[in-house]
Specification:
Length: about 160
């Protein structure tokens, strides 16, 4: 039974390692501790991103002042978590910048497109009302223009 073994072998659940040298054992322990810490930061960023996405979807579905404030608050907390993950070394700064840009873009696409659609619907309603009741200019306006023109000719 020749099983293929890849080195270094670590069994994190049991705390056992193949390393025999004291410094190597410590490095394995530090690496495992850092891995778990980084995993926690990345998980928190993902959780807050999902909460922010849900808040934006709620606001886009039913725009209210409260839901907008909730979405902005979630954006702020998500930015904070991303920045903290960068500070601790769990995320690369460029990856963090990309994530933050995508969050801002999500808000822009969901919320501002809803506003544009609402304006388009309102403008179509206004146009349909104009078509239904066309405005007719009164003949008095035309007569006033003619009277002033003839008065100017008489004065010259």
């Amino acid at each position: 039974m020749n099983a293929m073994i890849t080195y270094p072998v670590t069994i994190s659940n049991l705390g056992l390692t193949v390393a025999n040298i004291k410094s190597a054992v410590k490095r394995v322990q530090v690496a495992e501790r850092n891995r778990l810490r980084n995993k926690a930061y990345k998980s928190a960023v993902k959780t807050f991103t999902k909460r922010y996405t849900a808040a934006v979807e709620t606001y886009a579905a039913a725009p209210t002042v409260e839901s907008e404030q909730a979405a902005r608050a979630e954006l702020s907390t998500t930015y904070s978590k991303i920045d903290k993950a960068v500070k601790r070394g769990a995320l690369h700064p460029n990856a963090a910048a990309r994530r933050k840009a995508r969050l801002a873009d999500l808000y822009k696409r969901r919320v501002e497109t809803q506003a544009v659609k609402a304006q388009a619907v309102e403008s179509k309603e206004v146009e349909s009302q104009k078509v239904e009741s066309p405005e007719v200019e009164s003949p008095e306006v035309e007569l006033q223009g003619i009277e002033t023109a003839s008065a100017e000719q008489a004065a010259s």
